[in-house]
Hints:
mainly alpha; 3 helices
Amino acid sequence: MRFSMDEALRIKRASRVAITATPIAEKLRILERLRERDRAIRRATIAPEQRPTRDAAS
């Protein structure tokens, strides 16, 4: 498989068009799913003793 900058840019433009056409409510749902995914990844990769506690934020 070879990298093609033209193909990558074409896909990026198509993605932007698709997101632009997406309703705001759906964009917010996508954002929430991405945030949940980020939290899950962080929980899985941070050692328990390094995890921030809720008390520390107070």
